[in-house]
Amino acid sequence: MNTKARKVMIIGTGNVGASAAYALLNQNICEELILVDLNQQRVEGHVQDLADAAAYMPGMMTISTRPVEECADIDIAVITVSGGPLQPGQTRLDELTSTARIVKNIVPSMMANGFNGIFLVATNPCDIITWQVWQLSGLPRSQVIGTGVWLDTTRLRRTLAQALDIGAQSIDAFILGEHGDTQFPVWSHSSVYGSPIADVYLRKTGQPLDFDALADKVRRHGFEIYNRKGCTEYGIAGTIAEICRNIFTGSHRALAISCILDGEYGVQDVAIGVPAVLTQSGVQQIIELQLAGDEVAKFNHSVAVIKANIARLP
Ligand SMILES: NC(=O)C1=CN([C@@H]2O[C@H](COP(=O)(O)OP(=O)(O)OC[C@H]3O[C@@H](n4cnc5c(N)ncnc54)[C@H](O)[C@@H]3O)[C@@H](O)[C@H]2O)C=CC1
Ligand SMILES: CC(=O)C(=O)O
């Protein structure tokens, strides 16, 4: 029996980090949760509050805070830092300079202190920061991933599930590309048990599926939430928990997450959302799909936008 405690460090315990901690706790995904934030008083408050919640769980979980440099024993380091909320009208790309500056301080000091786990980046702009973490860390690309378009994929599946009255787990549809404005659903591979999604939709609703309207709805969904409550937190917390679970269980499940490409899809040296098989060592393989002509163009556009923003990194 494997008795080694599974340890997750969450770096940045604001809306996303604190919600992710609560999701990891309630889903019993690890034995140790280590919270890190600049705001020491609030992080200590989170530690005590979560310890109260953990008392209702059947298993034991240790929750603590410590300096980010004490990370040599960590299995998964989740990056959820931010330099401040977006202003109205801004996009995720507008966070680049402030979040990149924070990450530039954190990652080298973790590496200098022996970190050799898996980095999981949620901080926006997610793909660009994932690439930055990979560069700064010097870790193999298998150990650096971003939550990428898995949250968007979940939003797409749940919207289709509602329209079709079929459980989201039975809907094989997903988003590729940037966790941002250039993301797109891969309609050429979307089905319910092999039945093309457009056929299933027409049979169920009597209406043709409006592909563009649905893609747009999913793309804007984060901002629909953001504009109402000033952040999104529970959806991304669920995404973080799901990715951590698949890593710890070595599920070999393929999730559409941000990975460093090294020739896949004809692309090199970029982080972008693609289906990737997860094991206990991180990304074990990237699944390359035969995309339709318009999807290839959309993917390449997404790559170009991410690369242009990588070039802006401080
Ligand atoms: N990938 C996704 O789907 C999603 C990504 N996000 C992104 O997640 C990030 C966090 O969002 P929120 O939690 O709402 O922001 P927040 O402002 O509530 O929390 C950020 C936390 O980072 C901390 N922090 C800043 N510098 C730090 C440092 N050097 N060391 C340790 N902690 C530090 C702050 O003190 C703060 O507590 C943002 O970039 C946001 O856009 C949010 C939702 C979904
Ligand atoms: C904020 C963000 O990236 C999202 O909820 O999709």
Characteristic terms for this protein:
314 residues; alpha/beta; Rossmann fold; L-2-Hydroxyisocaproate Dehydrogenase, Chain A, domain 2; six-stranded parallel β-sheet; three-stranded antiparallel β-sheet; 42% helix; globular; binds 1,4-dihydronicotinamide adenine dinucleotide; binds pyruvic acid; Lactate/malate_DH_C; L-lactate dehydrogenase; EC 1.1.1.27
Distance between the termini: 46 Å
Order of helices and strands: EHEHEEHEHEHEEEEHHHEEEH
Q: What is the CATH superfamily label of the largest domain? A: Lactate dehydrogenase/glycoside hydrolase, family 4, C-terminal
CATH class of the largest domain: Alpha Beta
Task: Give the structural class.
Answer: alpha/beta
Strand order within the widest beta sheet: 3-2-1-4-5-6
CATH architecture descriptor name of the largest domain:
Alpha-Beta Complex
Please provide the count of β strands: 13
Overall outline: globular
Mean pLDDT: 97
Largest sheet: 6 strands, parallel
Query: How many individual domains?
Result: 2
Radius of gyration: 19 Å
CATH topology label of the largest domain: L-2-Hydroxyisocaproate Dehydrogenase, Chain A, domain 2
Question: Helix proportion of residues, in percent?
Answer: 40-55%
Ligands and ions found = 1,4-dihydronicotinamide adenine dinucleotide, pyruvic acid
Q: How many helices in DSSP terms?
A: 9
Low-confidence stretches: none
